[in-house]
Amino acid sequence: MSKIIKILAVEDDDVDYITMTRAIQxxxxxxxxxxxxxxxxxxxxxxxxxxxxxxxxxRLPDGTGLDFLITLNQAHRISQTAIIMLTAETDISIAIxxxxxxxxxxxxxAQICSETLEISITKALDSIELEQQVIxxxxxxxxxxxxxxxxxxxxxxxxxxxxxQLILLSQRTNQTFMVGILDLNKFKAINDELGHHAGxxxxxxxxSRLSKIIRQSDTLARYGGDEFVLLLPETNKISNFEQFSxxxxxxxxxxxxxxGKDISIGISIGLSQFPIHGxxxxxxxxxxxxxxxxxxxxxxxxxxxxSNAEKKE
Length: 313
Fold this sequence. Notes:
The protein contains ten helices and twelve strands. By secondary structure, the protein is an alpha/beta fold. Strand 6 (about 80-85), helix 4 and strand 7 (about 105-110) form a beta-alpha-beta unit. Helix 1 (about 15-25) packs across helix 5 and helix 7 (about 185-195) crosses helix 8. The protein starts with a strand and ends in a 7-residue tail after the last strand.
């Protein structure tokens, strides 16, 4: 290890503390050791500083190290800290409970020496590093599984799941909501004239701009190609949507100089409303798609349209 390892030794016995620090100083890695002689002091230091490793005595003046460990673990305050329990006790159940509650190792005080501490601290820190890598990779996998790689928006699988959950919730609460399918006008021409890189830039611009104006409770997702979908909970009137629709047209129609030319792009949107136009995902999306088709084929004289499908009984 090349970095200096910051260690907090939670130990009330002066002789044991001196024995421990002397053993650590003989280890091959550099350390910076601080001491807390009771749980209250340790709590204060942990709240103010980050430690790579905590050497935690079992018997302390104001409680047991095991109880303190359980408290830290339940509060998720030791996810990046290697805890090693030290005790003169011979009860193996203490070791088992310590390991179950977040300790990376357990060392009887009679076995404390430089070799034992070096092996224990090294393995504990390696374990923490591996756990953090796993968390990082899991986060990356979830990002790839649930988000569109180009726009970073939720993908269609996330949208479909949220739509289904909102349908179930709305059936219980008798609330209504809107589903929107949004399409970019003349997007194919941009791809053909300026290339797919420019097309990707347009999609990223639109995603970024719309993300900034939707409510926290709304969902904007990329459904595929140049098609986006909107989920608008607790939107029960066209008047509720009209003001938002104007904001959408304002932000999306602004020039996009980073695309390569000073181009702007128009959007069209088709809407459906739960439960008027459907009570299932398929019904709501089909109704919104039908409304969008009417806009795209100039069957109406505005850029957005709500489905005129008959009310579902």
